[in-house]
From TrEMBL:
The keyword Cell membrane applies. Residues 135-293 form the NarG-like domain. One of its GO terms (molecular function) is oxidoreductase activity. This is Putative sulfite reductase-associated electron transfer protein DsrM. It comes from Desulfatibacillum alkenivorans DSM 16219. The chain crosses the membrane at residues 7-30, 36-58, 134-157, 177-201, 221-244, 264-285.
């Protein structure tokens, strides 16, 4: 039962956010109270954006200050050693170019997730390993759909006719190449919703994953699903004035708050629900597991050379330690070792011959 508490708590929080934001926006429009709409559509997003930037910077600085004196890169192949042993260039990179290639494959294709396997115990007993492709497929679809949706929204933050605006519109035309409905169905939004839903179902149906899932695993997935669903509803069902949305956003970016209340009243309530959920995601991002977006580039298990067989790495912060070497140990106990029949590197005669010149000097 305790396994489901995290899911139930996440559903309650998400439900409260959705009902609260939708209720406030609907009440504000019904009573013609632009102050509440400005709070949801201008003040909260600005504060969330500030929290996002500050939080990400603090987290990156915190990670950057942690010492990593040794190369601890995880490997999945043969490291470089003897010349006649073939090393794996990407799975155990020993050059900077290899590290860059490994990072590129990891970030762009999720290569380590592609090699994910599942272990099962069958009758016999027999241990079987199987390739788990679907997690890699859904993760890849989720991230690339999220990236596409993120880039598409830049049409609201750029001037019409600019080079960036034209590039964004080109991407949007590609995204809606099926030309279904009016406005056209954009594939990335539905892929994002479907992939996030499948990742959530994986956590619910897989007993091992469900057992280790916490509220910080369910909450961002449910929040992203809510954002994608509200965006799809806003585009195809409960439509809003897109021109009025862009006017409001451009006014906010230019810090032109003259008549901001009237501009806010011209937009439907679904927009304020959508932008409020996005603001919650922005503010929550730096303190969540979603920070792996930046953490992957700072992970010492990925961005370090795997050359521990080629070079000896000594901790630069080691303080001087007085040691008792084996040579000194044997000099001290040589006679007793010989009496006990233990092998020694120097006999008593060799020791005496080596000490004789020193005594003459």
């Amino acid at each position: 039962m305790n396994v489901w508490i995290s899911l139930i708590a996440s559903l309650i929080v998400i439900g409260g956010l959705v009902v609260g934001a939708a209720g406030v926006a609907g009440l504000a429009q019904y009573s013609h109270t632009p102050e509440l709409l400005v709070l949801l559509g201008v003040v909260v997003p600005l504060l969330a954006f500030i929290a996002f930037i500050v939080g990400v910077i603090l987290q990156v600085v915190k990670w950057g200050r942690r010492p990593v004196p040794f190369p601890i890169a995880t490997v999945a192949g043969q490291g470089k050693s003897l010349p006649w042993i073939k090393a794996n260039y990407f799975d155990a990179p020993y050059t900077k170019a290899g590290v860059v290639g490994r990072m590129a494959l990891e970030v762009l294709t999720f290569r380590s997730l592609f090699r994910n396997t599942k272990m099962e115990l069958h009758d016999g007993p027999k241990l079987a390993y199987g390739w788990q492709m679907w997690l890699w497929v859904f993760a890849l679809a989720f991230h690339y759909a999220f990236l596409t949706v993120f880039i598409r929204h830049f049409r609201f933050f750029t001037e019409d006719g600019s080079l960036v605006f034209q590039a964004v519109m080109f991407l949007e035309n590609l995204d809606g190449f099926l030309q279904l409905g009016l406005p056209h169905v954009l594939i990335s939004g539905f892929v994002l919703l479907g992939a996030a839903t499948m990742l959530l179902l994986r956590r619910l149906t897989n007993a091992q994953v469900r057992y280790v899932s916490l509220i910080q695993d369910y909450f961002p997935l449910l929040l992203i699903i809510s954002i994608a669903l509200s965006g799809i509803l806003m585009r195809h069902v409960i439509k809003v004035d897109i021109v009025a949305v862009k006017v409001l956003i451009m006014s906010m970016l230019n810090f032109d708050f003259a008549g901001i209340g009237e501009k806010a009243l011209a937009i439907g309530w679904m927009f304020y629900l959508h932008i409020f959920l996005v603001s919650v995601l922005l503010a929550y991002f730096p303190m969540s597991k979603l920070m792996h977006m930046g953490g992957i580039f700072l992970s010492p298990t990925r961005n370090l050379l795997c050359n521990s067989r080629e070079f000896r790495h000594v901790n630069p912060w080691n303080y001087p330690v007085k040691v008792h070497t084996y040579e000194h140990y044997e000099d001290e106990f040589r006679e007793r070792m010989i009496e006990a029949g233990l092998p020694v590197e120097k006999t008593l005669e060799e020791t005496q011959e080596a000490a004789a010149p020193e005594e003459k000097e």
